[in-house]
Specification:
This protein is an alpha+beta fold. About 40% of the residues lie in helices and about 20% in strands. It has two domains: about 1-225, Regulatory protein AraC (Jelly Rolls, Sandwich), CATH 2.60.120; about 230-335, Homeodomain-like (Arc Repressor Mutant, subunit A, Orthogonal Bundle).
């Protein structure tokens, strides 16, 4: 597993943030220490033997871990490049998505979308055997159309229905049925085989079987569907919630709207509805909040550096805006905050 040290994490964007795909370094480090066994095929920064460049291109990672005792590691909050399906074959596992936690039990299935922050362990992983598949369907935001791999054999109607079920429902965990469990176990076995053309073909067939079984499972369970989960308003909401992390970048109304895949007026409408502010006013507030954080955490940093570090183009304009928002200038605020 030493190749992990040489790989560079793949990057991808959500609505507002640039993310580095999870490297699973804590998992690989534990494997090097002999605490856990890993069998996986992966691309980019994901662990395991490398998948070929010209086949199964949408599969980012597939495999399993086998942890026989309580671990000294966990996978902290992260996102993935694709939709992640996991199956807990044995043991118990703390799992959280978007700050909602659940204790996974044997036979539980989880589904996380690319825009969902999730964590495995609390903070450490328990004794467990977890099988996973990360499949890139070309989405980073809730309102984007899904692009499934061309090698899937599901009928267009079946695939459209599966997409609808996955976009409009974000339940954390499901109790898998026998067919879903069988598919996961077989996928784990396929990941353990040498990745030649015959084994990759078998893996394709198994992924098809898993998605068919998943579609049937979700259809049978009749989950409560919410069209708002894939709406433009939700994409704008996620963007605005994350904007403070990148407030220092040279945002304009046009670039903010483009990040959400929306027109300027459409984005402005959702911003006003969600924050009661225009997009530029909300961006300014995020920058002032970032400046307050820098002033408090870095007391020796100059006001000019704080201004530029918060996204303002001049220290004079920064001082004016800051005083208007906070009731005093940056220096006075820093002194009072002590």
């Amino acid at each position: 597993m030493n190749i992990a040290r040489q790989r560079r994490a793949a990057t991808f964007r959500s609505a507002a943030e640039l993310f580095h795909a999870d490297t699973c370094e804590p998992l690989e480090a534990a494997a090097r220490r002999g605490e856990v066994s890993i069998v996986a095929l992966g691309r980019s920064s994901y662990p395991g033997r490398r998948l070929p460049k010209d086949d199964l291109c949408e599969v980012r990672s597939v495999g399993f871990w086998d942890a026989r005792g309580k671990q000294s590691w966990g996978l902290d909050w992260h996102r993935n490049e694709g939709i992640e399906l996991t199956f807990l074959a044995a043991g118990h596992l703390p799992f959280a998505v978007d700050k909602r936690s659940v204790a996974l039990e044997p036979g539980h299935l989880t589904i996380t979308r690319p825009w969902q922050m999730h964590r495995v362990g609390d903070p450490q992983v328990s004794a467990s055997r977890l099988i996973w598949l990360i499949l890139d369907v070309g989405v980073r935001r809730p309102n984007q159309p899904w692009r499934w791999p061309k090698w899937l054999l599901l009928t267009p109607t079946k695939l459209q229905r599966l997409t609808h079920l996955l976009r409009h429902n974000e339940q954390i965990a499901w109790r898998a049925n026998h067919e879903v469990a069988r598919c996961f176990e077989s996928i784990g076995e396929a990941a353990a085989a040498k990745p030649n053309s015959g084994n990759l073909t078998r893996l394709k067939i198994l992924i098809n079987e898993l998605l068919i079984a998943l579609a049937d499972l979700l259809e049978h369970r009749r989950p409560r569907l919410d069209a708002n989960l894939s709406s433009a308003e939700r994409t704008a909401k996620l963007f605005l919630a994350e904007l403070s992390h990148r407030a220092d970048e040279p945002w304009t109304l046009e670039t903010m709207a483009k990040q959400c895949g929306l027109g300027r007026s459409h984005f402005s409408h959702h911003c006003r509805k969600l924050t009661n502010r225009t997009p530029i006013d909300h961006l300014t507030l995020c920058r002032v909040e970032k400046a307050c954080k820098l002033l408090r955490q870095e007391p020796r940093r100059s006001i000019t550096d704080v201004a530029f570090g918060s996204g303002f183009q001049s220290s004079q304009y920064f001082a004016t805006v800051f005083a208007r928002q906070m009731g005093c200038g940056p220096n006075a605020w820093r002194n009072n905050s002590k």
